[in-house]
Amino acid sequence: MKGCLTVILLLLLIALFINYTFFTIGMALAIWGIYEWKINKNLGAKSKKPAIILSIGLILALGSCVGNDDVTTEKEVAVKQEAGKVPNDESKKEKDKKQEEKKDDDKQVKETVNEEQSKSTAATGENQNTEQKESNTEAQKQAQLSSLIKKFGLQAAVVARVVDGDTFELSDGRKVRLIGVNTPESTTRTEEYGKEASNYTKSKLEGKRVYLQKDVSETDRYGRLLRIVWLSVPTDDMNENEIRSKMFNADLVINGYAEPSTYPPDVKYADYFRKFAREAREANRGLWAYGEYGTTKGDFDPKETEKKSSNSSTNRSSGSSSSSNAKSSSGSSVTSSSSGSTEYFKNCTELRKVYPNGVPADHPAYQPRLDRDKDNYACER
């Protein structure tokens, strides 16, 4: 048992010596001094040595404790500082990281904004360029249009009312008669296909903007403007394709609503109108479905000179006898000159008794007062 305690005490002393070297040495010296003091006391000897050894041991032990406390305190402070430093460093790193991230975000946002601004600026510039190009293109078109209108002597106008197939009234009140064509009558008298022609003209012109072109004559005997009518401005007013697609006079003939009817000096498009009429007649289109001469007067009617040569003698002789009979029976006056070159009838009723289909302008019985529609054919049915 004593041996075990000795071993434990020895191990304790070794541990103390390792961890507290100066304290252990001091305590050993103090114990030694006490031991010497007891020996001297037992011997009755007086010596200062035990007191000196004890004092040195106590001083060394106490001094080591104070030193250890200082060291411990310094270590604790260092540890605490180190421990505080680590979080501070981590906090600083985190803060720096956040700042970097914020800088990156700000940079990205700025780049995005700049990019959007660049795109917006580019888009605005592109739109402006496009608008400028469109504006320039439109200006060029208008300039070209004005040039063509001036070149071909066109006049823009609005059609207010259609009278019949070949006559209409403008918004300013002036009346226009189409040049070079003749549609069947549909007003004071009605010819076959007249209503159809009138309705077609209404559908194409009424309320529309058109372009009027003069040939030679300004007006007819009734004060109506004599005009070619273009539905849109041509690029070449003598090009057949342009005439077919853009001129309304030609449109009427092509579709069989009118016959070509040429009155010099307005003959600029006469050949085209006759060509288009032949095509329509061959196809039995429109008024040509009623016969090879159509339903109204035109360039393709039998020559009056032929009719006159074949019927002249018969007509004149029968005219004289009929005139006498008419005068005696109805009191109407029919006279003829001694040479027989002229005939006179009181009205169309009397004239038709002799000439049932009326007479042309070169006939001896023709009188302007009997030609109410002023088409150079008197009393026609």
From TrEMBL:
PROSITE patterns: TNASE_3. Residues 153-290 form the TNase-like domain. Residues 78-118, 298-309, 369-381 have a biased composition (Basic and acidic residues). It comes from the Bacteria. It holds the Pfam family Excalibur. Residues 78-139, 298-342, 356-381 are annotated as: Disordered. Keywords: Plasmid. SUPFAM superfamilies: Staphylococcal nuclease (SSF50199). Residues 119-130 have a biased composition (Polar residues). Residues 310-342 have a biased composition (Low complexity). This is Nuclease.
